[in-house]
Amino acid sequence: MIVRTSYFLIFFIGLWFTLTHIFSFVKEECIFLSSIAIPITWTISIGITFSLFLLYLFFVAKDRTFRDIIDQILPRGYDVPLDVLVRDFVVFLMFVFTIYWYHPSFYSHLNAIRREELFNGNLYLKTNEKNKQDGQFIWIEVKTPKEILSFEGKTNELKTLINKEVHIIVYQGLFSKYALVSQP
Known about the structure:
Largest sheet: 4 strands, antiparallel
Strand order of the largest sheet: 1-7-6-2
Shape: elongated
Transmembrane segments: 7-26, 32-59, 80-102
Distance between the termini: 53 Å
Order of helices and strands: HEHHHHEEEEHEE
Low-confidence stretches: none
Helix content: 40-55%
Keywords: Membrane, Transmembrane, Transmembrane helix
Number of strands: 7
């Protein structure tokens, strides 16, 4: 099982490397904006990671029954066999890679596999009425020549750019639209 687990981790880290380096879309000087609420993209990312872990349990660890899979998820005591510790280590690594090293989120990197440019130019950023009261994220309205789009971004990154002219590139991703903003 250790060999199969090693192969799976190599596959998962290879997938991570491919998405973050080859399909990398966020440049150092750009701010990422999403047409889907950012907390929802993180929820989708965690769901994708958990699904990959279930595939790991089914194909690599050979846990073929529902009870075996539930036994892996439930907390255990101090007398834990080595194979269970290996599975716990795998899920820990998967979630650390997904949450810590996938900026802005795993879903956003999957979405960026398709990169069809819809608009590229300078525009003024304006806030949208959809803004929530938590203050962590802010909705931005982007008026392109063809349509009016709404994107969500981090407030601390965007607060200095509101009502200013910025360079924006709007893309149609695999699942939804996203934008990259930089100062002209």
